[in-house]
Amino acid sequence: MSLRPHASGVNTFARVGPDQAVSVGPTRVDIPSRDALLRAAIKVTARGGLRALTYRAVAEEAGVVRGLVRFHFGSRDALIMATRAVRRAVVHDRS
Fold first, then answer.
1. Measuring CA to CA, how many Å separate 94 from each of 26, 47, 71, 73, 87?
2. 2 and 39 belong to one structural domain
3. For residues 18-30, b (16+ Cβ closer than 10 Å) or e, as one string?
4. Is this structure's pTM higher than 0.70?
5. Shared domain check, 77 and 58
6. Residues 78, 48 share a domain
7. Maximum distance among all Cα pairs of the chain, rounded to whole angstroms
8. pLDDT tens per residue across span 44-74
9. CA 76/CA 39 separation, integer angstroms
10. In this structure, what CATH number is given to the domain that contains residue 46?
C-alpha cells in the first residue's frame, strides 16, 4: 500500500490498495490564533507605528499569509482597534 496526494487538496492523502482507495481527511496544520496575530500586530506597531500596521507586515511577523489576517479582523480599522484595545488593557493592568 502506498500514499499519494489526493486530488481534493494539498494536505490530503488517499490510501491506495490493490482493490480500493480510502480517502483520509486533511492533516492537522497549526494555524495561529487571533491572539498570536494580535501579538504580531503589536510588535509591528511598536517598531513602526500605525503607518507600518498592514496585513502584509502582520502576516510576515506571524509567518502566515495575508488572507488569514484579513479573515480574523475583516478590515485594517478593526485590526487597529483590536491592537489599541490590547495595548490599553496592558497599560490598565500595569497601573
1. 43, 21, 31, 26, 11
2. no
3. eeeeeeeeeeeee
4. no
5. yes
6. yes
7. 68
8. 999 999 999 999 999 999 999 999 999 999 9
9. 15
10. 1.10.10.60
